[in-house]
Design goal:
The protein has about 475 residues and is mainly beta. Helices cover about 5% and strands about 45% of the residues.
């Protein structure tokens, strides 16, 4: 926790060290670059807004902090509560905030028990009686309020949801290799693209992990699309030398827990709550839900150079895409308002948002300027999580992907495994083995093992204890799965 009035010798030494180790670029742009992907576009500035739209952290829910700080600029759409001290704008790791821009915005209620210092203007709406307003050193801003919508938070959140969807639909260019060593997973991300290397990553749960990036060209960007709905990171490591040009996108996440972990990238999580317990996010952060900061968790003001990649124009203008349950099947519905030279839609299905299977094709209108509705029924969805996307293909074979939609089903399983829990050998029962193409065992980190199941027997004696998914892939692409506990 840093305050303006406690710049002691230890902190001074750390400031000097940071300025050398992080590079001059973080000291040049005190407000960071206004053209990067996560900067607030100018059309979302409210009346009187002062700044270039580049915030260290934007929280669209409430922020509650019993420790930690934001070393750059902070905007909170909901309420802000800090029973102990909390500073804004005092950058010791990275760039300090500008002196007189709108660096701390609370669009809801401000409730603070202790006086603390911020750099820049504090814009507030309502203040709980007895709260102490932040103080400012001479020439470093003032408190301004009551004011609402200094940023257009409602439509701004939609902007970031759409951005996350766009990034998630970009075709993967790199490969990911998971090396599972029991309680630790070594994850190798390999990419050689000169522009933007795009990875689809499923983070392990209940284990620490290390991320290593291999063969990344010096001037290229890195986009990591994380497929997890629930993200639970407790310890581990990732490199910091790629931080300025890397963005972690969490398009499906609803909850993110970071404990004792330094996430070295810009972060886009437009639908997630964040719990930070120690550690930090070292780059811009967009959090769509509530934030809880404990045990010194910090948002560090480290500038990003990540720019939204130029994507191939869609063969169609897709206005909606949804999935819903119909009995033991799922129904996919989508609509377009414009099509030019479009050929077909390939419907792809996954149970882990990482490995995709073609389950059907629907012919497109080809040429259209009116609303066109499409429908597809998946007759064999999996029990549990089901993910779908459209591959929209043009007549010249160019294509683009839609956003991913998902649905969780509680269905009578088409496959059963016993005994459960199992010690070594399990028996698989399914309706028709002649239609089974592949048997796989998937661990909680998303690693898939192709298995032999002669006579319906599955040998799990070499697997470590834990929870696994037994998955049967049919010849027609349908997937059935069930969970099993290995003792």
């Amino acid at each position: 926790m840093k305050t303006f009035f406690r710049l002691n010798y230890v902190r001074l030494a750390s400031l000097i060290l940071a300025s050398f180790s992080l590079g001059l670029q973080n000291q040049i742009y005190a407000q960071c670059n206004s053209t990067v992907a996560l900067t607030v576009p100018g059309n979302y500035f409210g009346s009187g807004f002062n700044g270039n739209g580049n915030f260290n952290a934007i929280v669209f829910g409430n922020l509650h902090a019993t420790g930690g700080d934001t070393e750059g600029r902070l905007a909170v759409a909901g309420d802000f509560t800090a029973p102990s001290s909390y500073s804004v704008g005092h950058g010791s790791i990275g760039a300090p905030a500008p002196d007189n821009t709108d660096n701390f915005i609370v669009n809801g209620n401000f409730n603070n028990a202790n006086n603390y210092s911020i750099v820049g203007n504090f814009i507030y709406n309502t203040v709980t009686a007895g709260s102490q307003y932040p103080t400012h050193a001479s020439g470093q801003g003032t408190n301004i309020g009551p004011i609402t919508n200094r940023l257009a938070f409602g439509t701004l959140k939609t902007n970031y949801v759409n951005l996350s969807t766009t990034l998630a639909a970009i075709t993967t260019t790199g490969t990911v290799v998971y090396n599972d060593y029991g309680n630790y997973v070594d994850i190798q991300l390999n990419g050689t693209t000169a522009s933007t290397n795009v990875f689809s990553l499923t983070l392990p749960t209940g284990k620490t992990f290390g991320l290593t990036f291999n063969s990344i060209p010096p001037n290229s960007q890195i986009l990591v699309n994380v497929t997890n709905k629930i993200v639970d990171i407790n310890g581990g490591s990732m490199p910091d030398d790629l931080r300025t040009r890397m963005l972690f996108n969490f398009p499906l996440a609803t909850n993110i827990s970071l404990a004792s972990y330094a996430l070295q990238a810009a972060v886009l999580a437009p639908s997630a709550d964040l719990s930070g317990n120690g550690g930090s996010i070292n780059g811009q952060a967009i959090i769509g839900g509530n934030v809880e900061q404990t045990n010194g968790f910090e948002f560090h003001n480290l500038c990003s150079s990540f720019i939204t990649p130029t994507t191939t124009p869609l063969p169609v203008t897709l206005t909606s895409f949804s999935v819903q349950k119909e009995g033991i099947q799922t129904s996919l519905n989508w609509a377009t308002t414009a099509e030019t030279n479009s050929d077909r839609f390939e419907i792809q299905h996954s149970v882990d948002a990482k490995n995709w299977n073609l389950i059907g094709t629907v012919i497109a209108k080809g040429e259209s300027t009116v609303l066109s509705n499409y429908q597809f029924t998946h007759s064999n969805p999996a029990n549990g999580e089901n993910y779908y996307r459209l591959k929209m293909i043009d007549r010249d074979a160019t294509f683009a992907y839609s956003r991913v939609v998902e649905i969780s089903l509680d269905l009578p399983s088409a496959v059963s495994v016993y005994p459960n829990p199992v010690v070594s050998q399990a028996t698989i029962e399914t309706q028709d083995w002649t239609k089974v193409k592949e048997v796989s065992v998937i661990n909680t980190a998303g690693k898939r093992f192709s298995m032999s199941a002669a006579s319906g027997k599955l040998d799990l004696s070499n697997f470590s204890s834990g929870i696994y998914i037994i998955q049967l892939k049919q010849l027609n692409g349908a997937v059935s799965s069930t969970k099993i506990v290995k003792q």
